[in-house]
Design a protein that fits this description.
Helices cover about 50% and strands about 15% of the residues. The protein is of the alpha/beta class.
Length: about 350
Amino acid sequence: MKKHHLWAITAITGVVLVGLVAAAASARVSSPAKQAASIKACVLLPDTVTSTRYTLFDAPYLKAAFKKAGVPALILNAHKDPQKQKSQAQQCLAQGAKVALFDQLDPASGESITNLLVAGGAKVIDYDRLVVGSKASYYVSFDNPTVGKLMAKGVIAALKAKKQYSKHPVVSELNGDIKDNNAKQFKQGYDSVLNPLFKNGTFKKAASGDQWTDWDAIKGRRIFDQILARNGNKVNASIAANDGLAGAIISSLKAHGLKPIPVSGQDATPTGVQYILAGWQSGTVYKSVRKEANAAAAAAIAIVKGKKVPGVNGNVSGTKSIILKPVWVTKKNYKLLFTEGFLKRSQVCIGQYKKLCK
């Protein structure tokens, strides 16, 4: 009988233990529900390839702004994967995000993700890139057509300085990604300045010299090699839609044993500034990511706290917008990047470029 009692006690104990384990498991399963409201704001950044800015500048600036305001936020990067970005948007909603700063990878996924966020109860702020026709509440970016105009005017100024403006220079264009609305607006800007000059014969457009690159510097290098071949190495100037593409052009020129030509750029990268100091790049468009990040964060924080969104100064494609002013940077004013804390001297004035910093 004692053995039977012992067995019964063991069985009962086992049942109790199973119940406890099940309860613990249930608690673990339900724990995400407790964390459902763990954030109030979410940032969906696109990649680390098309520009280093998202890692070096956007993420830390945004993190600091949300922390200062006491708004719990999650900052994610999709690493150029639209499906991953969609999953990250779902993650943001699951954790309780009420507002999302969203920088799309492409229009199709951009609209889909925006709709997902809005259906989940979150307000969307298009960050840097506008999702045309979407349900976003606000758009924060720079004046993109003006960015393009600055590039064209910078190249023209460099041609005049080299006394080539009146000699019917051959000019090419390396555009960004045709799927990127920003890239289209940059092109709209520089074409508005250059097309009249092509039309009246002041400039000649290089044969096969107006191409899209997907923001891929390797592809850009290959394309510019082909442009040089089609034009007998006689290309006198080129638009490069960002510093990465400018670097592609410069590496091509060097590989062919050619001298520097007027080349534009954008993003004010350390390498871009070094090329400017060395005379290989005419200038770069500086867009203060600090200002952009702070403006976007301020909008998100205002939405979270139920306040009026500050800084709205325009309407782009039906979306209330906060539009910021870009700056053309050359040898004359590059130190602005240091004084505003965008770059450090130690990032630029090193190695062979140290002696060029004055």
